[in-house]
Amino acid sequence: MKKKLLVFAAVFMLVLSFAGQAMADFAVGDLIEVVYQSGAGNPEVAIDLGNMTALTTPGAVTDTTFSTGTGFNQWSLSNFPGATYSNLNVAYFMYGGSGVFLLSGAVDSTGTNPQTIMGNGKANSAGGAMSSVLSLYAGLSGGSGMATTTISNLDSYYYLLDKNGTGVGSFASLVNGGTNNEANLAPLATTGYVDQYLYYYPQSASNVKNSQGVEIADIRTFANGSVEIIPLVTTPLPAAFWLLGSGLVGLVGIRRRRIAA
């Protein structure tokens, strides 16, 4: 009898564990992809790309692709009846808690950072708005990593972070750049992908006006719904490599002097 109770308890705990894992999506620290169709009552689809707090270490970003076969849920045009790619916008965000953010923004080909914090204390209100959006998605997804709602929902990305259309791309007035912080998906019909940058804001910068985000990655949205994160920051070679290199150069020099003698 005792053994049966122990087995039952073990199975019960295992079930609880899987249930907890299933409901752990759209959590603080997860990178979220949002695709929406503007216009009252139109769809908004969110995809959880998983915990991406590692991306907040510039230089540690690796090329990562989210696609079919990797347990990744993908949106498609079928989620937006009657729409074309030109009717859709995409944005990415991560709220890491305590004023830590990853935000999508314009591709910065000129080398002058286009995305900055709009005012002192803005991170506090933006973080609260993102928390509400994440809670909505978590409740709708049922642990699937994909949530579908409408932009009219009072806790939707569009309603809270785009301020119901009055602050598109501003992430609840956290940063400048406006619509440049989102990408229209029209190019998917021709080039097959759309590029944006990911900007990282640490706690020390996100509440200070005019603080600039750190460009850490190109995030590429494909027509088939897959996503690729492409590093922008080159990982520096470790100091030991340079010491080894200088040592080898020195040995070569010594050998050449001996041969010459």
Characterise the protein shown here.
This protein is 27% helix and 25% strand. It has one domain. The longest helix is centred in the last third of the chain and has 22 residues, at 239-260. Strands 1, 2, 3, 4, 5, 6, 7, 8, 9 and 10 form a ten-stranded antiparallel beta sheet that branches. The radius of gyration is 23 Å and the shape is globular. With 261 residues, the protein is an alpha+beta fold.
Strand content: 25-35%
Number of strand elements: 10
Write down the Rg.
Answer: 23 Å
Please outline the major beta sheet: 10 strands, antiparallel
Average pLDDT reading: 84
Tally of separate domains: 1
- Describe the global form: globular
| Low-pLDDT residue spans | 1-23, 234-249
SS-based class: alpha+beta
Q: What is the count of helical runs?
A: 5
Order of helices and strands: HEEEEEHEHEEHEEH
- End-to-end CA span: 89 Å
Helix fraction bin: 25-40%
Kindly list the characteristics that best describe this protein.
alpha+beta; ten-stranded antiparallel beta sheet; 5 helices; 10 strands; 25% strand; disordered N terminus
Structure summary:
This protein is an alpha+beta fold. The protein has helices at 2-22, 122-141, 157-160, 203-206, 239-260; strands at residues 30-37, 43-51, 64-66, 88-97, 100-105, 146-150, 183-184, 193-201, 214-222, 227-231.
